[in-house]
Each structure stands twice: as C-alpha cells, then as structure tokens.
Amino acid sequence: TIITNDTSTLKGSYEYIVVGGGTTGLAVANRLSLNHTVLVVERGPDAMNNEVINDPFTPFGTQPHRLSPCHFEMNAPPQVGFPTPRLQPLIHGSCLGGGSSINAMMGSRPTFAGMSAVEALGNPGWGWNDFLPFMQKSETFTLPNAEQRADGADYIAVVHGFEGPVGVSFAIPFVAPAMQNAAINTTEVIYGLSLSPDLGTGFSGGHVAHYYEHIHFNETLQADRRSSSAWSYLYPQTQQRNGLTVLTDHMVDTILTRTGTDGNITAIGVTVLPTAGGQTLSFNATREVVVSAGALYSPTVLQRSGIGNATFLQSLGIKPVLDLPGVGANFQDQILLTNVSFPLAPSANTTNVTAGDKILLGVVVAHPTATNAFGPNGTDIIQAALLNSSADFTLSVGGVVNAESFAAQASVIANAYRIDHPIIELFYTPGSTAIEVWSQSILPLSRGTVQINTTDPTADPIANLHFLTVDVDIEIGVRMARGVAQAALTPPFSNLISADALAEANVPGPDATDEEVRNWVFATYTPGVHFIGSNSMMPKELGGVVSPELLVYGTTNIRVTDASVVPLSVFPHTTLGLYGVAEKGADMILKAVTN
Ligand SMILES: Cc1cc2nc3c(=O)[nH]c(=O)nc-3n(C[C@H](O)[C@H](O)[C@H](O)COP(=O)(O)OP(=O)(O)OC[C@H]3O[C@@H](n4cnc5c(N)ncnc54)[C@H](O)[C@@H]3O)c2cc1C
C-alpha cells in the first residue's frame, strides 16, 4: 500500500477511485484492492501515530481531543432553541479513518426492526438477516475474559465476527464496574427493562446492557487502542495491498462524466486539488467511482459534478448532468442531551465508580421501546403522533422531495416501534468528579438538507438539519429529559451522586411542566453527530439517490457507500453498521465485475 500526499509519483489511471479515506472509504478500498487497482483520495492528513487519536481514553470532547488533527467543526445555521434559535456545531473527522478516528467508539448495531424498516422503504436485500453477515465480516470480537465477565460483561458469540479487521471488545480493565451495575439496576427500575447479554443480536425489545466499543487490546503495548478504520483496514501488515494507493491532504472537486446514448451517465475520472489549495489534476477511473466522503460532504461532490436538483444547480452556474432532486435532501441526525453532569457523592469516590483515568463514554446503555418510555399505550401514542405528523414544514425547506416520502418514512418508523425498536437511548459515563447521564433520540422524523452555496470545493456546505421541527421529535425529547431526571432520583444509581445533583446539573425535576422540560431541551440539546440520509437509499420517486445496489440512479458506475445512503437513523451509533454498509457495498461492486 502506498500512502502519500505527493501526486508526482502517482499513475494517471486506476480501476476504482474512492472519494474519502474515512470510516467506510478505507473499508471499501481494502476489499476492492485485493484484485484491482484503487486510488483513495482523502481530504485530511495521515495521523497514524497521533496518540490523542489512538488512545481510546483521551477524554472525549476535552481540549486534547478537540485539538487532534482530525477534528473539524462547521456550524449548522440557527436551529430550534430556547429562548432563541441556536447555532449547532457539526463535528466531523477529516483524516485517514474519518469519523472513526475521533468518535466515542460506542459500538452499537442496528436492530431487526430497524433493518426491516429500511427494507420496507423499498430496499430489498437490506433486512437484518441479509445484513448481519456483512457486519460480522468486518469484525473481530474479543470475548470478555473471566475478570470482565465477573464484572458483568457478556456476549452471544453467534452474532459476532471473529476474523474481520475491526476490533470490538469491552475495555481492559472493565470500566467502573460498580457504577455500571448501579446504572443498570436503576434503569431497569425506571423503564422496566431487562438486562441484555449482548446488544448486537438484532432484537431490541427494551433492554439495558454494558456497552462494548470499537477498541482492541494491543499485546505489545499492554493497552487498549482505538480500532479506527485506518488501524483496521489500512495500516496493519496483514492488510497491505499491491494495488492500493492512498492520496492524503487532497480533495476531490468533481466526478468527470460522459452521457451515453441512453441518457445514462458514466464516470470516467475525478478532478483533485490539494486541500491547502493549488493546481487541479485529474485521474481516470476505468471501472467505478465510489463516493465515501460522509453525509456532510458526499452530496457536495455530486452537486459540484452536476448531479442533483437541476434548478438549484443552475442557480449556482453548474451545468446539470443528472436531475436528481434527492441529492442533499433527507439529511438527518439524532439529538443528544449532553448538558448533564451529576456531581459524585463523596462516598462514591472509588475507581470502581469513577474509572480513574480510564474513562470511556457511555459504558452502560438503555434502549427503552415506546411502551417502556411512554407507558402501556406508548406504541399507539407514538404511532398516532407519527402518522398524523404534518409534512408541510419539512417540504417547505426541501427536507423531503414530496409528501409521499415523508408519509412513507413516518409509516415504516411507526411499524419499527410496533415491533420493538428502541425510541430513546440513555447512557452513563463515569468521571472522577461527576457522572454524566446523557440521552439520545434514535429515529427522528425531522429532515433537513446539505447544499453547496458556491462551486469552491474548499468551502463548507450549508448543512441544515432542522432539528426538532416535527412535533413527535419534541415529544420524544421531553421524554428523554424526564428519563435523565428519573435516573438521578432512583437508587441505587442515585446513591452515587450528590443529594442535590438534579439541581446542581440544572436538569428539570419531576415537578416541572412539559413546557418547562421542552424549553430545557430546546436550550441544551446538541447534535447526535450521526449524520445520515443526504444521498438516501430509497426509490427515486421518494427522493432516493441510490438504488439498493448503492448505484446513483441514472449512472452506470457511480456508487455511494457511506452514511449518506442510510435513509433512517436505524443505527443508534453508526460506525459498526456503516462497516456493514461498506462491506456489502464492496461485495456488490465486486459481483458487478464478475457478472
Ligand atoms: C464526535 C463524534 C463522535 C461519534 N461517536 C460515535 C460513537 O461513539 N459510536 C459510533 O458508532 N459512531 C460515532 N460517531 C459517528 C461515526 O463516527 C460516523 O457516523 C462515521 O464515522 C461516518 O462514516 P463515513 O464513512 O460516512 O464518513 P467519515 O468517516 O466522515 O469519512 C468521510 C471522509 O471523507 C473525507 N472527505 C470529505 N470530503 C472529501 C472530498 N471532497 N475529497 C476527499 N475526501 C473528502 C473526510 O475528510 C473524511 O475523512 C461519532 C461521530 C463524531 C463526529
């Protein structure tokens, strides 16, 4: 494998060109380059030996983490807020490994109900049973040892993979076991959940569990390490490839295309320029161009290449080559309530509770269903709220291309909840002075857009999520906040935090009205940073951009294989599911060669 930022040594032509060397791009490139020549173009640097990135215990969100060469932010335009609209920071990774080099490593998978919803949206071949083997292909799961098992770690071996590049395991040592057990007991009481031995089985049904992470134990260093896609699919000796060239510090401006007599578009190469600015070059692609620049940027590459809403492209002076109105629409993210830090009770200050200096985000996670969170009629309440949601606002901002798309998505989400899809995530993070209890929404219905506003490839797009613009998302947000407050008041977890933790954390208590809680949610929520959907895999009539084969509609050889194709937020945390998307995408690309 060649990794370089110098274009002078590169060939002019490759069988495949992969746009973006992030989480999914490196996984796809690894599989394609076994028997083909592949050029990966990555906008960010190679940060291979950066300890802030590699050490999973670099405290998440703190100064060193934010200063890593991979950490980038752009602001979404002012979003719903209280008392006034608020700018929202959209954090993303830009280096080899992309988001997997900066994320919190929480290792969750989609559920059976979630993948059924994706399939029901018009994507045959994407149900749980078809998808699981690809998640397994990417994974080497490390069974918990006796000590970790005594502390509570458990697993169901049959759903895991044991020969894939990505390390998935519980931390050694197991993080803050006493806090984990208290959190589990409390969450069982609040929501009536049962303890799941393994989060990755596909069956949600209301559970709480110890979280595993995308980390592995490095025998030489005798320490846990981050398993980014760079450290899984690119750097290891076992993954070296003759046919793979990775160009860093360069970005793809456009995909070069020609139009066939049947009107279909074929990619013939890409134009590339140094990220820092400079001369534009072009490289030929003789088979396919695979776009893996992530949900924030993949639509921008298509738009600059003339693929998108033709009227919009013309307004920027771009000649449309393919009128595909869904490009950049259906953009979505979950919300997170992160502004919650409960001070420790003095008696709780032991490593078993605080984790010392080995702190990982969200080591216990609860996934209540609609019934668990809203009571016995919860599923009916949420189903009615979803099906009665108005598409008007979302349509007016271009979040969906038509009302049918909005209704179809609301309907498959309602069915997923009816099966047993989680509606909320609640997770607990130990710390030396405080324990954080955060909550995340899972399947939002609010939709926004990603749009370039200049043809300059170095400019960030306008990424407008329109968070909390559909009533049912607000209703769920209020329930998330109520769950956080209940956790602070329910033993045994409440025994670990100070008696007035709720007030100290400024979280509305059980007596607060729904309006007060809603205002607190509006004032404090942050993005879930699981951006998806901006090139959704859906029927074209619903605003889909790619087919179930991940081919951009109307093209013969442009695929998208990253988070932008995921049409619904069915991966509570995206990464392990995205490796499945990349593996399945690579498999389909290679099958197209032999057919
Ligand atoms: C702060 C944070 C915390 C997170 N925590 C978790 C977690 O705990 N668990 C979890 O599962 N998920 C988590 N996620 C989400 C997860 O990391 C992302 O969803 C995932 O990495 C996205 O993968 P991707 O391949 O779609 O895009 P990325 O990994 O973002 O890859 C896209 C790559 O393309 C490059 N690129 C962009 N434009 C161009 C261009 N024009 N030319 C060339 N290259 C380009 C970018 O530099 C980037 O490297 C987190 C994300 C963030 C930001």
From TrEMBL:
It comes from the Eukaryota. FAD binds at residues 23-24, 252. Residues 294-308 form the Glucose-methanol-choline oxidoreductase N-terminal domain. Keywords: FAD, Flavoprotein, Glycoprotein, Oxidoreductase, Signal. Its cofactor is FAD. InterPro entries: FAD/NAD-bd_sf, Glucose_Oxidase_domain_2, GMC_OxRdtase, GMC_OxRdtase_N, GMC_OxRtase_C. It holds the Pfam family GMC_oxred_C. The active site is at residues 530, 573. PROSITE patterns: GMC_OXRED_2 (PS00624). GO terms for molecular function: flavin adenine dinucleotide binding; oxidoreductase activity, acting on CH-OH group of donors. Belongs to the GMC oxidoreductase family. PANTHER family: GLUCOSE-METHANOL-CHOLINE GMC OXIDOREDUCTASE (PTHR11552), GLUCOSE-METHANOL-CHOLINE OXIDOREDUCTASE N-TERMINAL DOMAIN-CONTAINING PROTEIN (PTHR11552:SF201). This is Alcohol oxidase. It comes from Mycena sanguinolenta. The lineage of its organism: Eukaryota, Fungi, Dikarya, Basidiomycota, Agaricomycotina.
